[in-house]
Specification:
431 residues, alpha/beta, Nonspecific Lipid-transfer Protein, Chain A, Rossmann fold, 7-stranded mixed sheet, 4-stranded mixed sheet, 19 helices, 11 strands, 46% helix, elongated
Length: 431
């Protein structure tokens, strides 16, 4: 009976590659066309198999985390890639109706008011800086890097991401910038130190991130150029010339999109510009993976362009540029996953083996999704007036060239960097 269930469910899905499933009792079922590296998984008990077949999106991660789905050959990443890379038939009309119902129900899990938003952020981001230091780059960038060439290191690609975003902000001398979801402060510090913004205010809901960001600003001696606050974006009272948000919008929740963009409009000056960098779906609107929202990012939702465009329009804002970064996050996640697995024993000492299996699954699932599903990064430039940004995209390359030259001389650990900071304060002429 169990063998028949696997053959009539997984067997119909797996038509490429080679997947073997060892069932409770020892029976092995092999499926696929035999190409590629073999992948073999083992299920501990009958309930594990049934739950996997009935609710694969939720139960696969749970079973792996609990040790009831184990890898015999290959890794969990190999297994997920094999499954997600299979040719998919066009959804039936019934499946689309079911998906619409799931989307409606999911809105109740995304009631991200200020209190719940802070709890959701703490769930993921307050795990301790020592944990994130195991796999992030030295600037603590926990969002998609921008790989300018295949052999670029993660640290250089993260620097390229900050440079690319800063160029799209079209910064002018003295511009005030709001960084919504500032993380450990890397983007805000770059805008203040390299891009020469007038003043940068970074807001976060994570106590751990706030402390680290404030410490980094103090170490660089630029507390008067960048300010970090434990504050919800809805509570920020000032207006700004520029707004940037990197890797935060995924936590807003679909039901709060209008509130988010309304708040951004009210905080932008008339000639203001905003750059939103977010994970999203290049397909039509859908629900987010239920395992991810239950265990990793509670309250989260991955937007489609249509999810965002209609609320941007209602907020009285104008989309002035859209760039889709494909596969950049897959490469970023691979670097994180490799680094995490290399230091897994340290993570296990901080938490436990079950936690490490959960994070291995998370990093593996995310990378596989970016490689094989319709998951991308959207960089959306938004303004209140059409004239706020140049009418061609040449300014981006020109700004990046200027920023590259500044990067070499704006580290406050160097004499040139100290001169640059002094110039910002009006103590010496700026170049």
């Amino acid at each position: 009976m169990l063998k028949w269930l696997v053959e009539t469910t997984l067997g119909r899905l797996i038509c490429q590659g080679r997947l073997s499933v060892i069932l409770p009792g020892g029976t092995c079922v092999t499926m696929g066309d035999g190409t590629g590296e073999p992948v073999e998984v083992q299920l501990a008990d009958r309930r594990a198999l049934l739950s996997l077949l009935l609710q694969p999106e939720l139960r696969t991660g749970e079973l792996f985390t609990d040790g009831r789905l184990t890898m015999v050959r290959g890794t969990i990443y190999d297994f997920l890639c094999l499954v997600l890379s299979q040719p998919q038939a066009r959804e039936s009309g019934t499946a689309r109706v079911i998906e619409r119902i799931r989307q409606t129900i999911s809105l109740w899990g995304q009631r991200n008011d200020a209190g719940r938003s802070r709890r959701n952020v703490a769930h993921h981001y307050d795990l301790g800086d020592a944990f994130y230091a195991l796999f992030l780059d030295p600037d603590w960038q926990y969002s998609c890097a921008y790989f300018e060439h295949p052999d670029q290191s993660l640290a250089d690609a993260q620097l390229a991401k900050k440079r690319h975003i800063a160029a799209k902000l079209v910064l002018r001398p003295g511009d005030r910038v709001l960084d919504i979801g500032c993380g450990w402060g890397g983007m805000a510090l770059y805008l203040a130190g390299v891009a020469q913004a007038g003043k940068v205010v970074g807001v976060t809901l994570s106590d751990e991130q706030l402390s680290r960001a404030q410490t980094r600003a103090a170490q660089r001696g630029i507390e008067d150029l960048v300010e970090f606050r434990l504050q919800d974006y809805r509570a920020v009272p000032e207006t700004f010339d520029r707004i940037v948000s990197v890797g935060m919008f995924e936590h807003v929740g679909l039901a709060f999109y209008q509130q988010f963009f309304d708040a951004c409009r009210h905080r932008l000056t008339d000639d203001g510009v905003m750059l939103l960098h977010t994970i999203g779906s290049s397909d039509e609107p859908t629900t987010t993976n239920p395992w991810l929202t239950r265990y990793i990012f509670p309250g989260g939702h991955l937007p489609s362009l249509s999810d965002m465009s209609r609320v941007i329009e209602r907020a009285g804002l104008i989309v002035t540029d859209v760039e889709v970064l494909r596969l950049h996050y897959a490469t970023t996640l691979r670097a994180w996953r490799v680094a995490f697995m290399a230091r897994r024993a340290e993570a296990c000492a901080m938490f436990d083996d079950r936690f490490c299996r959960m994070w291995e699954f998370y990093l593996s699932m995310a990378e596989a999704a970016f490689r094989h599903e319709d998951i991308v990064i959207f960089q959306i430039q938004i303004a209140r007036r059409q004239e706020a940004v140049p009418i061609t995209r040449r300014y981006i390359d020109e700004a990046e060239t200027r920023l590259r030259h500044r990067e070499a001389s704006t580290s406050v650990e160097t004499p040139a960097g100290l001169v640059a900071v002094a110039a910002r304060r009006g103590m010496v002429p700026a170049d």
